[in-house]
Amino acid sequence: MMANLFSIFDPVASFNLPLNWLASFIGLTLLPWTFWVQSNRYSKLFNLVFNQLHTEFKTLVGPVASKGHTMLFISLFLLIVFNNFLGLAPYVFTATSHLAMTLSLALPLWLAFMIYGWFNHSQHMLAHLVPLGTPGALMPFMVLIETTSNVIRPGTLAVRLAANMIAGHLLLVLLGNQGPSMSSSILSFLLITQILLLTLESAVAVIQSYVFAVLATLYSSEVA
């Protein structure tokens, strides 16, 4: 039962190529060509979202941040939110429910931040290991705790996103599997419940994407 339940996350295709993972970039094919060549409602909506995210990420990074600086995290947010919404569609592979996807996003960012910070701001990175006002006797323990907390950051980013996507999809599948065994009166209530749950999952898709991007932005600000 458990194997069948989690099999909905298996990347299975009728070809030998991992075509399921290509669904992560299918959004580029859905955009109309007019989006790229002239101003219309699609480009205006994108610019509105872009400017709003730039304003919020710039506050986290600092006043020296430019649109080029925050573009990395805006692109990260858009990629994750698109894949989260794509996974809510029936029979569509959910890439962000796999650690292979989420860890591939979190680990390179974390490594880049650490390499940049230790090579360019070594004293600043060492100062982060011992919070201000720490007693001398506790300093070795604080260094160990802060180092451990820093090392597990990419793992917590990846697991948080994947676990939230898995939990919502499993709940939807569990409710959907109960439909054939229910009476028509209860079936209508189940349908309303699934619609409400799908609405909640849509909000979770946006929130988790935003949390991932914000935490990545905060990690980058610590090494500046």
TrEMBL record:
Signal peptide: none
Lineage top rank: taxon: Eukaryota
Organism encoding this protein: Simocephalus vetulus
UniProtKB keywords: ATP synthesis, CF(0), Hydrogen ion transport, Ion transport, Membrane, Mitochondrion, Transmembrane, Transmembrane helix, Transport
CDD domains: ATP-synt_Fo_a_6 (cd00310)
InterPro entries registered for this protein in UniProt: ATP_synth_F0_asu, ATP_synth_F0_asu_AS, ATP_synth_F0_asu_bact/mt, F0_ATP_A_sf
Family designation: Belongs to the ATPase A chain family.
SUPFAM superfamilies: F1F0 ATP synthase subunit A (SSF81336)
Topology with respect to the bilayer: Multi-pass membrane protein
GO cellular component: mitochondrial inner membrane; proton-transporting ATP synthase complex
A Pfam family it matches: ATP-synt_A
Protein name as it appears in the record: ATP synthase subunit a
Entry's localization field: Membrane; Mitochondrion inner membrane
